[in-house]
Amino acid sequence: MRQKLNQRLRCPDCRMHLELCVCHLSPRLDLETRVEVVIHYADIRKMSNSGRLVALALKNSAVHIRGIKDKPVKAALEKKYKTDLVLFPGHGSVELNETFLSTITRPLRLLIPDGSWNQASSMVKREPLMKNAVKVHLPAGIQAKYRIRAQEDPFKLCTFEAIIRALGVIEGSQAEEKLDDFFRVWIYRSLYIKGRIAKADMPEGMLPL
User: Fold this and answer.
1) What separation, in Å, do the N-terminal and C-terminal C-alpha atoms of the chain show?
2) What 3-state class would DSSP assign to 158?
3) Which of 5, 59, 157, 179 could form a disulfide with 161 if both were Cys (CB 3.0 to 4.6 A apart)?
4) Which helix (H) or strand (E) holds 84?
């Protein structure tokens, strides 16, 4: 009963408590680059999952659910996108930077495997959406600004922050800053709900008036 009550009190899109919903703060950017995230079905409803925020923050985006029996990921064939990139720092990946971008044809589609290392590796190898995409990784030295899970490696970015940094390279700093502003509120409210930050310690503007 308690679990059902908690579910009713959460926004179905951002997974925040209703009084802390961030949906109306979403920038809804309409970028040339299309972003598509593949998330395992077991993770999609977790409050800590940031990959689903793509659907809120970016108009030109899609979220696909993986791992449901007899329901494979089906992505529309987007002929308008000339290059598919998959953000995965595995063997053979290329650094995502201006030099690399100058060698590919735009507009492009950025594909994101959202999950543990093993889950993401499996997606890149097995999902038709990603199998033929060019693997890319973020420039070296980028540290996480935001950490929702305790004791995280500062060089391991959560999914949405990794997307923000990638779009900063591809689309420029203005898009990156707007996404950062939105994500910062989501992070602080998530920490507040988890009891990891007191109301008195919340920066100004992070909680609704």
Assistant:
1) 30
2) coil
3) 157
4) strand 83-87
Alpha carbon separation from 1 to 4, 5, 13, 114, 184 (Å, rounded): 5, 6, 22, 30, 32
H or E element that contains 98? helix 98-101
Asked whether 55 and 22 are in contact (CB, 8 A), the reply is: no
pLDDT tens-digit readout, 40-94: 888 877 878 899 999 999 999 999 988 777 676 776 656 678 899 999 998 899 9
Cα of 95 vs its chain's centroid, Å: 19
Domain coordinates of the chain in residue numbers?
A: 2-201
The pTM score is 0.89
The set of residues, in sequence order, having a beta carbon less than 8 Å from that of 76 and lying 6+ positions away, is none
Beta-carbon-side half-sphere exposure of residue 195 (alpha carbons within 13 Å): 0
Three-class SS of residue 109?
Answer: strand
pLDDT in tens, 3-53: 443 445 889 889 899 999 999 999 999 999 999 999 988 887 787 889 999
Residue type, 117: W
Q: What letter would DSSP give residue 138?
A: P
d(CA 65, CA 49): 13
CA–CA dist 65, 145 (Å, integer): 27
Give me the residues paired with residue 61 across strands. 35
Q: What angle do CA 64, 51, 185 make, to 5 degrees?
A: 145
